[in-house]
Design a protein that fits this description.
This is DUF1963 domain-containing protein. By secondary structure, the chain is mainly beta. Helix content is about 5%, strand content about 25%.
Length: about 120
């Protein structure tokens, strides 16, 4: 199932965040949005019930050269929001050159799929 973004699933682009939540950053470097997932849309595919059935998960990463090649607690954030999704607001990106990843649509399936061997 492929879902286009609007209160659902997206990879990259601009996030919908609750009012008052600051844009995730580390040492003054704003993070890029990797993915944002409305969990109610994923629930039918979560056969093992490993995720909460409601809310929004947002994944952010510091993609600056200073952050690589290390992934640590400091240069990534996962935000779980289980409030009223109608309160979320699209946020503009902080002013930064090459800030956004190109937006993509996510597709979910209950089948286990591995990446091609060239990526392992």
């Amino acid at each position: 199932m492929s879902l286009s973004w609007h209160w659902g699933l997206q990879a990259r682009g601009l996030p919908d965040l609750p009012p008052g939540l600051e844009w995730p950053a580390y040492e003054g470097r704003p993070f890029k949005l990797l993915a944002q997932i409305r969990l109610a849309d994923v629930a039918p595919y979560d056969l093992a019930h490993e995720l909460p059935p409601t809310g929004m998960l947002s994944f952010f990463l510091d993609s600056s050269p200073e952050a690589y090649p290390y992934i640590s607690k400091e240069n990534q954030r996962v935000i779980y929001y289980d409030g009223d999704l109608s309160q979320l607001r699209r946020r503009s990106a902080p002013a930064a050159e090459n800030f956004r990843f190109t937006p993509r649509t996510l597709t979910f399936s209950s089948r286990l799929m591995l990446p091609p061997s060239r990526f392992l």
